[in-house]
Amino acid sequence: MRRLRSLILGCFAVVLVGLAAGFIAVTEPDLAIPAALAVLVVGIAAIDLSLIPVLAVPATMAVVRVGPMSLADFVLGFAAIVALLMLRGKGAQTLQPLLWAGACYIALTAPQLLLNRYVANYIEWAHEIALVLGSMIVGFVVGREGHAKLALGMYIALCWFIGIAAMVTAVSNGFGPVYLGMLHKNAIGAILMIGAIIAFANPPWLEWRPWFGYATFAVCGVGALAAQSRQALIGALVGVLIVGLRPRFHNGKRSRWMWVVLVPVAYFVVTAVQEQLGSDDQFNSSNQRLDWYGDSIKVWQMSPLFGVGHRWWVTGHTGYSGFQPPNAELEVLTTVGVLGLIGFLAMFGGAFWLLAKMNPVYGTLALAVVVGRFAQVQFDLYWVAGHSSILWIIAGICYGVQARDKALGIERIPHPVQTVLRRTPVVRI
Question: What is the pLDDT of residues 315-339, one digit of tens each?
Fold first, then answer.
């Protein structure tokens, strides 16, 4: 009876908000998308408030602008507020070590706010709090509330669409770089890289059939290859290597199939980079990156300890603009200096350690995604809305699923590692 009453009240609220949104859309067309989002959020909240954080997972792909922010930022911010309200109790203390790792970076980047006093710097610092700590909390609530399969399933469904579209586009344009609307080739690659790692890991709590995992891995991998996103291919290779070298959940064996994928793709990436570096074209992507690396060092030298502030590439106050450093460490060094880089490396180092110590049934996926993303951004942008939040959302999901299983009395024990000298009967989880 109570649930029926809540549903009726929710429907009534949707009608009221829908009428208001319709009026806003007619009078202010620029606000049509936010108004439609408001109706969607109210409708979902009327069904189950815990579904709101789920939206943040597929929304990481949304780069369209909604006023001053991207749609990914808008959804993540709202989802983080809802997740904070739902965080108390129910095993939330298990997430604390990961939150401390993220807080280390945030704290060590705070002093530069006193030195670099401009609005964009303050806004971006707050934005990074949401991208790191907010994403962890959102992911934890998604996993703890039992929505991990739904959230990652929605992400994978979009990966199928993007991967197939990338392959079709590559065939139609003569196998050139792929652009799908506002998604350029590196954005496509970053999205499909995460999908490929999720599919290859295929943890048992997702309850996906093995054939579905392998098919998804193939679609994501070939899609990233078709898009010609070399950075994403490197990240995917590292993520697959992490999963493959850890014992599989159901039999303790390590994957042998990964070498069938790793060797030829690695050869393709190395050959393509060598070809570009040896080319006379100084404006190809590889040679252009070398120029940007040099300019980034010059920007960092303006303020080595604290950096010149966030988003200097659009403010123009350094004399350099038009490019965001395509390397995570250089990006962090220029914006928040050596002190911030210490926090950044501590955040990732702490996450690597914590996730590696987790039960592999839960930790392997999170570790592979975080390490894979870290490898990718050695050659690409790091602080990009959506792409810099999905890895921490997935890490939070894995923590949340573990907390949920513990609360429900579900014990998932990985099978002992199988070696030539040590064989035990296959035991499935």
Answer: 988 888 888 998 999 999 999 999 9
